[in-house]
Amino acid sequence: MSGHAGAADQKGLMDATYALHRHFYDLTRKFYLLGRDRLIRELAPPPGGTVLEVGCGTARNLIVAAKRWPNARFHGFDISEAMLDTARKSVAKHGLSDKITLAQGDAGAFDVSTLFGLNQVDRVFMSYTLSMIPPWKEAIALGAKALAPGGSLHIVDFGQYERLPGFAKRFHFKELNAFHVYPRADLRAVVEAIAAEQGLTASFRPALRGYTWSAGLTRPA
């Protein structure tokens, strides 16, 4: 899908960046993508519910979530076909092809009906993806819009290291930027603004001295 300026360029950039790196992405990321499993534990989808991951990458999170919440159905999309190729193989290897549906899509202009034939979803989550996609504000708004009554959106990403030494932030952010990762300093403000626009309840929680930020949106039942 392409729904915003630069979507094709972003797809090409991600494909080029991860054409090789996708093969050892999960091994390297587990050491510093902290908070992902906590997010999955907190999803708690209703029995028979639907869960969507925006920017699913290699499907690592979807696989963990599908095993933890076996009564739900999972969907994920990514702009990178290179990542999706790895994701499809991994899902099949774990015997979860009947529980996890994958698609290629643009986080800045997605529609769950077009991608998956769904009218709405019970849970949406975004794990260390907003720092990688230029239309990250649009992605949050669209994810929130897709929520069913009583549904919730869950976010975890890099924070601003606000209670860590300045050199740690400078060093790590330089490393992240080299992989086109840009932690979003105004994440809380954006989430709260979207909550106000859509009549949702917002939450925000820093952890590990600001290394990670978690945020959420909940639609009234």
From TrEMBL:
Q: What does the record give under GO molecular function?
A: methyltransferase activity
* Location of the Methyltransferase domain: 51-151
Q: Name one Pfam family in it.
A: Methyltransf_25
Domain of life here?
Bacteria
The protein's UniProt keywords, in alphabetical order, are: Methyltransferase, Transferase
Q: Please give the InterPro entries that the UniProt record associates with this protein.
A: Methyltransf_25, SAM-dependent_MTases_sf
GO terms of biological process kind:
methylation
Q: Please give the name of this protein.
A: S-adenosylmethionine-diacylgycerolhomoserine-N-methyltransferase
Organism, by scientific name, is Sphingomonas trueperi
